[in-house]
Amino acid sequence: MELGTDSGTELVIDLREVAAVLLDMDGTLVDSDAAVERAWRAWAADYDLDPDKVLAIAQGTPAISTVRRFWPEWSDERAQADANRQLARECVDLADVVPTVGAHRLLETLRESGLPWAVVTSADTRLARARLGRAGITPPLLITIDDVASGKPDPQGFLMAAERLGIDPARCLVVEDSDAGIAAGRAAGATVASVKGRPADLRLVDLEQLAALLTQARAA
Fold first, then answer.
1. Is 168 a known active-site residue?
2. Is 179 an annotated catalytic residue?
3. pLDDT tens by residue, 46-83
4. What pTM was estimated for this model as a whole?
5. In this predicted structure, what is the pLDDT of residue 12?
6. Beta strands in the chain (DSSP E)
7. With contact defined as beta carbons under 8 Å apart, do 18 and 174 qualify?
8. Which residue out of 24, 82, 154, 179 is catalytically annotated?
9. Contact status, residue 14 vs residue 216, Cβ threshold 8 Å
């Protein structure tokens, strides 16, 4: 299977070699984009910051990383308290959180093919369970910011998921929608697929397409 890469060259990816799929949550498996934007625009307003600059940094990264980026002089205690407040704000805003296009079909495809899978997210456990629950998704393995010392773009979350699944990271397919997440997947040594047009080893229209590609690969 030949797929365009961000370098403009061609890379041959054999999806038959994929032994596990590691999925990001927000923007990838769960459509929470509107809720995320509302929460960070509100946070920007709290501190009279440019909301567009805040959103550019916040997407795909842990809340604590965004807080520290804008307020590096704050103590760890103050930064963590503010990040916790932001996560709590997001937990109560679930009205329009839904599964992304093809999410449930992809998960059914993974179940039918026997491919293990996990969710690896920059959210904390409380927020992750709230959004996944709203979307009707119960992952067999969930890795959140609570489980790691460093969040994306650090690869720790993906490496931990691969280890717990008992799969070599090089045989994992990471699916992401943010630059930070893609960088984390690459640093873990995995093949990386992206949605939303982000440069990656495999660029997807949506998860429906990935489900079809995996089905095709298994039938080959």
1. no
2. no
3. 999 999 999 999 888 899 999 999 999 999 999 999 99
4. 0.87
5. 60
6. 2-4, 10-12, 20-23, 30-31, 98-99, 117-120, 142-143, 172-176, 191-194, 202-203
7. no
8. 24
9. no
